């Protein structure tokens, strides 16, 4: 695996990190919107509690005047309460989705950091191995240029130093090649892990998008809810 492929992997990893940062910003915005929605729900709940008694009294009076059936005010009150409970449940659902998304982002960040460290370590090992191989090959080439048999000079030098014969150098080159192949295999595995992490980033994006849509629906329904309360209160004020 050459330096170009290392650079491509590093670039891919950086792209994943940028996507995660974007998702973190997006989730932070969603959390802020969720807090605003929660405050709105609390305000609406106070409105319902404040006017519930007067609404009930008005309903009783109108029912006494018109005993033919259940008045529309009762249905409106029930609808408002039901809508409020639905909003609270939907807000909890959005909150849970955001919590899960944040946990997944945190886990992905840890995995990306670990993968980045492994890639850096493998790259350094590969560079070291390639340098050792280049040094060994250069020594062999110099022997050829001087018209000697490969390993002859090393053989004489190592014998005078009392060490093993020159065939050990060839064995060392073979070992380095095997180690380099192993490193390349591990790099290929790291590439697969990065692809899997990229896929998980896509899942987080989809979850964040779903949470955003749910939050938009909640805000739209809350707006309608507030408008209905205003209209109902204004209607009862006429009686």
From TrEMBL:
Instruction: Provide the coiled-coil residue spans.
Output: 6-47, 98-132, 173-221
Sorted UniProt keywords:
Coiled coil, Repeat
Question: Which processes are annotated in GO (biological process)?
Answer: synapse organization
Name the residue ranges with Basic and acidic residues bias: 141-159
- Annotated Liprin-alpha CC2 domain ranges read 170-235
> Polar residues compositional bias: what residue ranges?
160-170
Return the annotated region ranges for Disordered.
134-170
Q: Which residues cross the membrane?
A: none
Superkingdom classification of source: Eukaryota
- Show the GO cellular component annotation of the record: presynaptic active zone
Protein name as catalogued: Liprin-alpha CC2 domain-containing protein
Q: Which organism is it from?
A: Monodon monoceros (Narwhal)
């Amino acid at each position: 695996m050459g330096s170009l492929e290392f650079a491509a992997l590093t670039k891919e990893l950086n792209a994943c990190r940028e996507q995660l940062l974007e998702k973190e910003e997006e989730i932070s915005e969603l959390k802020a919107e969720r807090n605003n929605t929660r405050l709105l729900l609390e305000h609406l709940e106070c409105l319902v509690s404040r006017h519930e008694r007067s609404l009930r009294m008005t309903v009783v009076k109108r029912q006494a005047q018109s005993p033919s059936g259940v008045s529309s005010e009762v249905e409106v009150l029930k609808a408002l309460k039901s809508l409020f409970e639905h909003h609270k449940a939907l807000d909890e659902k959005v909150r849970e989705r955001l919590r899960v998304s944040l946990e997944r982002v945190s886990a992905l960040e840890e995995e990306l950091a670990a993968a980045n460290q492994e890639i850096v370590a493998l790259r350094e090992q590969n560079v070291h191995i390639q340098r050792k191989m280049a040094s060994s090959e250069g020594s062999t080439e110099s022997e050829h240029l001087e018209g000697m048999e490969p390993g002859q000079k090393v053989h004489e030098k190592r014998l005078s130093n009392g060490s093993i014969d020159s065939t050990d150098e060839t064995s060392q080159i073979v070992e380095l090649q095997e180690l380099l192949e192993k490193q390349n295999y591990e790099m290929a595995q790291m590439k697969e892990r990065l692809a899997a992490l990229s896929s998980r980033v896509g899942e987080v994006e989809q979850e964040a998008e779903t949470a955003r849509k749910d939050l938009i629906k909640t805000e739209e329904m809350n707006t309608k809810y507030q408008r209905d309360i205003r209209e109902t209160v204004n209607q009862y004020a006429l009686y």
